[in-house]
C-alpha cells in the first residue's frame, strides 16, 4: 500500500506528530485540538503521498507506457543524442497530490544512466528542462531506444533511482520516485507514434503514451 522508499519519512512524520500532540497535552492543553488537527493532517498527507497502488500494464507489445502519474505539460520535437533526430519530448508534471512512484516505460536493457546536478526551479517552468537536477535513464531493446529523466523541482529535493547499468527491466515495474512534486520527461524516437495530448492525465505503468 505504501512504497518502502517512504518508510523513513513516514516514521519521522509519525514521531513529529506524536511529539506535537504530546507536548500540547502536557504543556498547552487549550491548544490540544489544534495540535491534534495539525498532527493528524500532516501524517495523513504523508501517508497519502507515499501510497503505491498496484498497476497493470496493457497487454500490447508495441505500447510505451507513462513513467509517472501526472499531467502532460509539454509535447515538442527535439534532437537527442541517445534517441536520434526527429525525436519527441513528452513532459509529465507531478503535483504533490499525484502518486510519485515511477515505473519503467518499456521492456529492455538499461544502457544509459547519468546524474546531472542542477538548480531547483519550479517543475512546470520549461527552463527546468535544462537547468534542474535530474537523473537520465536510457533503455533499448533492439527495436528502439527511449530516454527518460527524473527531474527535481522546487519542493522535490530527493530523486530515488534503483537502476544500474545493464539491468534488464520490464514495462510497468517500479524503479524509483521523486519526493514532493516534480516532473518526468521522456524522449521518444522518430518512429514512435505519440498517443497522448497536452493536458491529458497519465497513470504510471498503465497509460499508453506512444506506440511503435
Characterise this structure.
With 212 residues, this protein is of the alpha+beta class. It folds into two domains: 4-49; 63-211, Glucose Permease (Domain IIA), CATH 2.70.70. It contains three helices and 14 strands. Strands 9-5-6-7-11-3-2-13 form an eight-stranded antiparallel beta sheet, with no helix packed on it. Helix 1 (7-27) packs antiparallel against helix 2 (32-49). The longest helix has 21 residues, at 7-27. The chain is elongated and about 65 Å long.
Compile the SSE list and pairings.
Elements: H1 7-27, H2 32-49, E1 63-65, E2 70-80, E3 84-94, E4 101-103, E5 108-116, H3 128-131, E6 134-140, E7 145-151, E8 159-161, E9 168-169, E10 174-178, E11 182-188, E12 193-194, E13 201-202, E14 208-211
Antiparallel strand pairs: 1-14, 2-3, 2-13, 3-11, 4-10, 5-6, 5-9, 6-7, 7-11, 8-10, 12-14
Features:
about 210 residues, alpha+beta, Glucose Permease (Domain IIA), 2 domains, eight-stranded antiparallel sheet, three-stranded antiparallel sheet, 3 helices, 14 strands, about 20% helix
Quick synopsis:
The protein has 212 residues and is an alpha+beta fold.
- Rg calculated over all Cα atoms: 19 Å
The backbone outline, from C-alpha atoms, is: elongated
How are the strands ordered across the major sheet?
A: 9-5-6-7-11-3-2-13
Instruction: Give the class-level CATH name of the largest domain.
Output: Mainly Beta
Q: H/E series, N to C?
A: HHEEEEEHEEEEEEEEE
